[in-house]
Predict the 3D structure of the following.
Amino acid sequence: MDSKRIVSIIGTGSYVPERVLTNQDLEKIVDTSDEWIFSRTGMRERHIAAPEQAASDLGTEAAKKALEDAGVDAEEIDLLIVATLSPDMFFPSTACFVQEKIGAKNAYCYDLGAACSGFLYALETARAQIACGAVETALVIGSEKMSTFLDWEDRTTCILFGDGAGAAVLRSGGEGRGVMESVMGSDGSLAHLLSTPGGGSRNPMTHEMLDQGMQYLQMQGREVFKHAVKRMTDAVLSALEKNGLSTDEIKCFIPHQANIRIIDAISKKLGVGDRMYVNVEKYANTSSAALAIALDEAVKDGTIQKGDLVVLTVFGGGFTWGANVLEWGK
Ligand code: UT7
């Protein structure tokens, strides 16, 4: 078996729930303003899932679109990974729920936990399994119902996130270089800066834990900001070096959509001007879904064309981060 097979993304899809929550809406919920949110984050609005929608429902919608885009039947999928920090439940995996909903009965399925970096981690995991010949076709999904895990009384976090999902179908073969090897990293010593500390085996689900609000996402924003800029910039440069490429050769950079000021800082450090893809104003930070949604939009709006070189980069809780390069072959 060839250990270096080309792996291509052959279809993408994304989904955001119908309900839109604007900055003006947030002004009625917490002590904030459209001016503060937009100037500090670049966000205007975000989408919020309906009460009956869970992460697997959002992921299923994105997956169906990606499969249609790829022209692939669900039964052709060998591997199905859902990256999420807001799973339907602890177990079974959200991936198994998606499997059932789309009819991917020949796939083996699991969730991947790398917070906001999850989609790129999942992409790399699928790429490696296809490249070594273990599987032929993979469906990778980033899906989040962040709104469940936000403290809607905490203005420092609740304004920042939104719900949504994105998906990609990967397969061996294709023209060009396809999805190239990623550069990934983690630093568990900084886990405390961005986490949802309650509800797991460390701080079990007790009335006391709930009273303390430990079931909600907590973040030390300024610290996270600094690390996000440095780690994504360094990861992009390493990924380019690993693949013998320079920033000038890249048509489009798609970073994690957490804050326009983070994206601008990376853009400045890399000297890539307006080649950074940005949609944070429409969706806010959808965690592991953000990169997947942005990739799908960049393909569908024509920003990415056949033969273009594209860089993806992420940063999230853990800390976790990564970057890769792909040659768009569709
Ligand atoms: O997806 C994982 C990666 N996540 C990120 O990368 C997020 C990284 N962090 C950030 O994007 C930014 O740090 C934030 C957007 C979270 C915060 O922006 P900041 O410029 O770092 O603001 P800050 O936390 O330093 O707060 C400045 C002021 C504070 O008031 P004082 O202490 O200066 O009086 C806050 O209390 O802004 C206040 N503030 C707000 N004011 C109005 C914080 N949140 C709000 C708010 N509305 N929503």
User: Anything to note?
Assistant: Residues 32, 36-37, 40-41, 116, 155-156, 159-160, 221-222, 224-225, 228, 258-259, 262, 285, 315-316 surround oxa(dethia)-CoA (CB under 6 Å).
